[in-house]
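Case study 2.
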Amino acid sequence: MNFKNIHIGKLIEKEVLNREIESSRICNFFNASEKDILNMYECEDLDTKNLLRWSKLLEYDFFRIYSQHLILYAPQERFHNRKKNEVNHTVLPKFRKNIYTNEVIEFLLELIISGAKTKTQVIEEYGIPKTTLHKWITKRKTFNDEENISFL
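Prediction:
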């Protein structure tokens, strides 16, 4: 999964095909024509109302794809590098952005294993703390070692 360039319409279309949902059901759910649904598949982005409806219909949180993009490409550390006197007041709820999903962890580890990026590049480009990355690598090695043990 490429979290940098998101084409939400194509992702939705893939999931519809994967789940084999009939177009008549989708049209009824959205109260829209088949042409409108096909147009949504071609959209690189959708409004939040429609994205929420797709998430409910397909029972998949499509918003999380965008959250993963923020984690990888707009690490919270960038926001903390403001002037110390500058206070960020917001009335919006605060969420912990530093919770990485298994998909993101696997994506980053695969970059390192495949040689596409070094550990240092991953740390710098994605704002992953060095200790966190090393914990992921250690856990993966332990998991792979356990997986390779044959039962007697």
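The chain has two domains: 8-65, 75-82+92-147.
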